[in-house]
Batch of 2 targets.
Target 1
Amino acid sequence: MEDLSILNASELITLNPIEGLGILKNASISIKGGKISNIGLPKLAKKEIDAKGKVVMPGFIDPHTHLIFGGSRANEFELRIKGKTYEEIANCGGGIINTVNATREASEKELFESAMGRLNYALCWGTTTMEVKSGYGLSLRDELKILKVIKKLNDAQPITLIPTFLGAHEIPPEKKKGEYIQELINEMIPKASKFAKFCDVFCEKGVFTKEEAKKILQCGLKFGLKPKIHADELSSSGGSELAGEIGAISADHVVYPSFQGIKLMKKAETIAVLLPGTCLFLGHKPSVKKLIDAGIPIAIGSDFNPGSSPILSMPIIIGLACILLKLTPAQAIIASTINSAYALGLGNRIGSLELGKDADIIILNVSSYKEIPYWFGFNPVQTVICRGEPACLP
Ligand SMILES: [Zn+2]
């Protein structure tokens, strides 16, 4: 007998095969031992949930967040509304450095508690896996503090957290850039590699150049950290080219990719992680068509962070992806599940409903997937199941 059966879903969105939603109508799904054990016809189980009139699909996978930080940047939000740009605010001591100061002052316990509240919220909006970056410490001590908090959070709540080392998020104010890059390479990456799966760099004018980013990511690779890149977010800075050259698993933002960058990303099978929350807050309009026409797989994430995207809800991100980036609802669902799974190197374990995969499943209070972006701002999530265990119920 199965542990749990979810019966009669109006739409069971399997995401199998990839590049299609794989919708089964009036279908059921069962779970045993935390894995998907049956799809299609109903099967007897110890516990049953009736999903008549509802959508059942894989949990959302958020492939890009800066979940752990101290303070807030509501004041800068106001400055931006009054007309200051992201760069102008950063030049006056605001921006990332503002959050770095607040994060350095915060204790491990304070960071744990604030992030725990955020994770509970994300869970109720259907996120079952989340990538989490360090990057607001910018010193060995504070970056390790953040990575340890991620590890503790992973053990303490149902969302699976995937840690990324982003020591190269910015240059700390007390150091020269060259000196900091040496510290990253000689001290920080070797130690951070024990806690992280990926290494990320903010490759951007005024932050790390393409050549500097390459050095840092190559060092990460030496210590087993797969490369990710904040690429071409504010200007065309060589990030997409580097992503392709180094074989990054994803290039994130990609608002201003060059033609050559797109070509190299395609060749290296790099996934473009688009971040529509940031596009909303900073007024960016990425050319998604260029990427799609080139055959680059698209994932979407929240980029949750205190400066440019204080949005953690994946249904809202899906809505924004449709409205701002002109993804169709189907493309946005694929981008927030199976493609996000691949952007985290987890495509064989999560992101679709297939036999043997982890039972990360959500039940939604809508009868068609098209209603997810349409009822913008409305939380459609009724039940969240993480690795077979109901984690968030109505
Ligand atoms: Zn980011």
Target 2
Amino acid sequence: MDARIASGWIKRTSVTLAIAAFAAPPTQSQEDLPIRNCTWCHGSSAQGLDGAPRLAGQRAQYIERQLESFRDHSRDNPASKQYMWGATARLSSAMAQGFAHYFASLPAEPADDGDSSLVAAGKRMYEEGVPDANIVSCIVCHGPKGEGFEGIPRLGGLSYAYTKNRLEQWREGYHASARPMPLVARAMTAKEIAALASYLSFLK
Ligand code: HEC
Ligand code: HEC
């Protein structure tokens, strides 16, 4: 081969290789993600279905951390054990990241399924806590609209039953690694949990 042609060929080849390397994403590309493996439980638009919570609009960093906690079994409440340990057993970190960014990008709709007579009490607790009972306010971490921040999850519009279960199960000692929530939930009464979960289901 003529030296000039050969060097041209090498140049073109290395350009192609460089493009290929650039195009290969560091995370799983969204077209390849088996989204339906998740949405047949979490709902076709990921707004939540039965016991499976809404994933749409949840913080990517939080989703990734939960997937990790199912995989390492530190999120050990009964529903997680029954449904999510298996779903994450063979999930690579790249796929977990891909799912987290995909679901975070979807618009979140509120469940609106709490007890509306408890909303005012729930709002007061969310914003001010219950100083006498040693319950901190939620707003400082979860934000005025329950929108969350980085690894702190969005709570606004989560379903009543899901939020209620989460708080009850922390109080019972499950998923103890999810600091600070086990400590936050420890002092709550059933009535207070119902009020918070009701308020949050309507918040957007
Ligand atoms: C067989 C049903 C089922 C499948 C399949 C499933 N999930 Fe879940 N998922 C659940 C249930 C039920 C929960 C609630 C666990 C609990 O109550 O703590 C959950 C919880 C979660 C949570 C925690 C959300 C939060 O707000 O803390 C994430 C994240 C999640 N699933 C992501 C996924 C992803 C990603 C997939 C697909 C790879 C998937 N799930 C597949 C049923 C399922
Ligand atoms: C100091 C910050 C902080 C405060 C205060 C706080 N939270 Fe949290 N909350 C977190 C963090 C961080 C997580 C994620 C924990 C993990 O890693 O799993 C969380 C998770 C949650 C979840 C789980 C959401 C899901 O999708 O499963 C609920 C529900 C929740 N908090 C409710 C509350 C309520 C109600 C209050 C007020 C009574 C409150 N939090 C106060 C930081 C806080």
